[in-house]
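Protein in question kept underneath.
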Amino acid sequence: MTSEPKLLEEVADFCLGKMLDQQKNKGELMPYLANLNVRWGSFDLGNLREMRVEPREFDRYGLKDGDIVMCEGGEPGRCAIWRNQVPGMMIQKALHRIRPHECLDSRFLFYSFLKMGRNNEFSGLFTGSTIKHLPREKLAKVPIRIPPLSTQRRIADVLSAYDDLIENNRRRIRLLEEAARLLYQEWFVRFRFSGHEHVKIIDGVPDGWGRKQLNEICSSVDYGYTASAEPEEVGPKFLRITDIVPDQIDWSSVPYCSIPEDKLDKFLLHEGEIVIARTGATVGFAKRLDSRIPDAVFASYLVRLRINSEIDNFIVGTSVESEAYKDFVRSRIGGAAQPNANARVLTAAQILIPPKPLQLAFREVVELLIDQKGVLQAQNLKLRGTRDLLLPRLMSGEVEV
């Protein structure tokens, strides 16, 4: 690939999204993407929010098919291509919208960014000592190699074939997770479990069931470790609040951290434990950790719950991963600009405790779903590994298409 690079500002238009201001924003309510909705190569559209946008602002802050949406903060440079998944989508100020000129295939530009992200090439552009940002003026000077459009498309076709398979597996994973949630709703919300016809409802729950606050069924509730994420493998994985927002934890993208040996046991995560985000837009997001967890510790903005043997952690995990639990947490902390929830708030929700046989029956079904999910996740790791092996070689011209 012999083409001379051009600056991004020469080959694409870009702008930042709209500032959130409930007092000043006017117009109709429109869905918008925030930083936490943007993953590498995909969007998490399960928790969209709305803001008021005036018609004259639609073009400025709206998205079109082929636009690249990139994080300005959080994990600066993380991006994905918008494919009109939701009509009328806007972007919040923490995001860049990058619209390639006709000389650029949007997929090729995305893979250029992905290569930079994999090689940690964005880091030299960041500002800020604690919270990193990628400002517009820095992004404008990013050099982009531009081979002939036909070559761009051939390269993008090869790489996107892997990403299409990965996304197909993600959709299947989401269906498996939805099946577990629906089963929980059917048995433990609507009380349509096997044999429910012969069980009386007393004080709002089936006879023989109980209710306890989350803190009453935890053997421990712990805050995480304060450290800096490291791109290189220097210690255990370092689970952050942004890592538990997507449908599943992508451990391959979770960074590492250094931690003293004498503190490792205190913060090391294990199967069956539950981690919950306690701050910002992610507050109330939770994940139950399955058997495929690597050696990992959890960050200070997460709270870890260890569930005692009174109730199966599969039931607790499904309960706190629900939208109802997020709504409960948000209702307890008000509408602060930077919401924070302490462990007392996060563990105040009530959990239904059904009889042991029903707990075990639920676990048996959900474990099968989780096993299927694990197979798909393993396939995605292999697909991503092959794509990442090809990525720098195709983009540099080392491998001809």
Notes: The chain has three domains: 6-146, 147-197+355-401, 210-353.
